[in-house]
Amino acid sequence: MAVFPLAEIPARGAALHGHDAWAIRHGDDVISWGDLADRATRRAHALRAAGVKQGDLVTLALPNGSAFYELMFALWTIGATPHVVSYRLPLAELQAIVAVAAPKMVIASDAVLQDAFGAKPANFGRNHAETTPLEAVIAPRWKAMSSGGSTGRPKIIVAPGPNTFDTDRRPPLRFPDDGPILATGPVYHNMPVTTNIQALSEGHAVVGMTKFDPEEALRLIDTFGIKWTSFVPTMMMRISRLPKEVRGKYDVSSLETVWHWAAPMPPELKQEWIDWLGPEKIWELYGGTEGIVTTILNGVEWLAHRGSVGRPHLDKIKVVDEAGRELPRGEVGEIFALPAGGRGSTYSYIGADARTTEDGFETLGDFGWMDADGYLYIADRRTDMIVSGGANIFPAEVEGALMAHPEVEGAVVIGLPDDDFGATTHAIVQPIVEAQGSLTADELLAFLRERLVAYKLPRSFEFVTKMLRDDAGKVRRQQLREERIAAVQETKTNQRSAVG
What sign results for the dihedral spanned by CA atoms 265, 268, 274, 279? Predict the structure, then answer.
């Protein structure tokens, strides 16, 4: 077994590929392995001079780019823990997260955030005069991610274990033997940052994207002969909606492994990608930042277990009812898992408590079921489920049916309060550009009636032009719901005022 500090990754890459070989590129922002090592060292000296010590959290609110990686490796060099957040967070939300995390320092690219927190800029320490290599300090926590800000209850998910990597224990990500990977997602989400660092640790260069663009993704695959990449379903939908003549301009035959994760995958979209690239190339991973469970399957398995997210890789899973009793195969309940290393081996919370069973199983809040062969199927998140007239409606299923319509770019389904049913299903739909202003609720209802039973059909529709999910496939469902409830209440108040 060979274990090395994460801080050594740039230097090891320079020794393997050469000082001047490029390691990370985002458009014109290109950095070599040697320069990555040099800048990380300079920044590490600057951080240490500013009082950052072993075990401290440092919040990074940065976009995709070289600066993010330079600071990650610098923090690992001095034994500090990177706390990664979205650089796009509203000020109030980031203030709530920082209050929970209590970092030693905040580094942000946004001038407003710099003023609000006294944060250091993205170039902090890059040109520090001291370049003497530092011996890496081992820390008990290697990264921290944030979650839950959209509900008003932020929590920090801390990854335990030293800031090291083990060359003999690699996750089953199917990286190729050589060549760069294409990193499409924002690094402020867990899977992109985790897989990108893992790829660098295995000597792969990373082609990143500052913002996802479907045609640009195909161009990069063609230009760099990409063998490995990952998407969220929203990205795959946008690629699939490109005109055939645009998709046909680019050679993607180099692809060997295409992962998708982070959000439910509409079955019809997955089938389209399987038909395009071949089932053996399409891989799916289900899990969470907490790391308590990972399920994996490829397209060949999916065709035999349509709709599944796979079987547990190493962990244990059980599906339970509201009383905590384990349910038989085929019945929907809340998913609980126990990681292979035991409870507490994959994460700890700051600002929240885990929901556990007596035997140590924990939940991410998802509902689902398992088939007779042990394959897991996801219904939806516990907090997203809509109870209407006593019936359980899972938004992901309705959203998947909506997005199968060729004129729908994106869809989010929420539950709105109703005096008779308790809640009714409301669909927020983003049509493709060509269909904006012409796609109708009646057309969508006719389409959905062929795919959903009557009680799952949306009772109301709303058409929008802006993207509903971010580049990581995430949606602020609670915020969307609260905004619409507030709008209804305001309308009622105005009507009462008008009558008065």
Answer: positive
Judge whether residue 12 has pLDDT over 90.
Answer: yes
b vs e for 371-404, b when ≥16 Cβ sit within 10 Å of the residue's Cβ?
eeeebbbbbbbeebbbebeeeebbbbbbbbbbbb
- CATH homologous superfamily of 386-499 equals ANL, C-terminal domain (3.30.300.30)
- Tokens 């801080």 locate to 7
The tokens of 144 are what?
């921290």
| pLDDT for residue 498 | 59
Residue 232's nearest CA partner among 191, 279, 180, 278 is 191
Spell out the residues 6+ positions from residue 139 whose beta carbon is closer than 8 angstroms to its own.
54, 55, 76, 79, 80, 81, 162, 163
Whole-angstrom Cα distance, residue 296 to residue 284?
6
- For residue 500, the model assigns a pLDDT of 56
Please state the CATH superfamily assignment of the domain spanning residues 3-370 in this structure: ANL, N-terminal domain (3.40.50.12780)
Contact present, 397 and 261 (Cβ < 8 Å): no
Residue 406 dihedral angles phi and psi, to the nearest 5°: -65, -15
Q: Is the distance from CB of 154 to CB of 89 less than 8 angstroms?
A: no
Amino acid identity for residue 490 in this structure: E
Taking 90 as the threshold, does the pLDDT of residue 6 lie above it?
yes
**Residues 409 and 469 sit within 8 Å (Cβ to Cβ):** no
CA 280 to chain centre: 23
Question: Judging by beta carbons within 10 Å of its beta carbon (0-12, 13-18, 19+), is residue 258 exposed, middle or buried?
Answer: buried
Where do runs of H (alpha helix) occur along 7-144?
9-17, 33-49, 66-77, 91-101, 111-117
pTM for this prediction: 0.84
Percent of the chain with pLDDT over 90: 69
The model's pLDDT over 140-164, given as tens digits with 9 standing for 90+, comes to 999 999 875 444 578 999 999 899 9
Q: Can you give the residue ranges of every domain in the chain?
A: 3-370, 386-499
Contact in structure between 310 and 284 (CB atoms under 8 Å)? yes
Q: Report the DSSP pairing between strands 257-260 and 282-287.
A: parallel
**Alpha carbon of residue 321 to chain centroid:** 28
Bridging pattern class, strands 206-208 and 228-231 = unpaired
Q: Specify which residues 326 forms β-bridges with.
A: 320
pLDDT tens digits, residue range 120-133? 999 999 999 999 99
CA atoms of 227 and 240, how far apart (whole Å): 19
In contact, 139 and 52? CB cutoff 8 Å: no
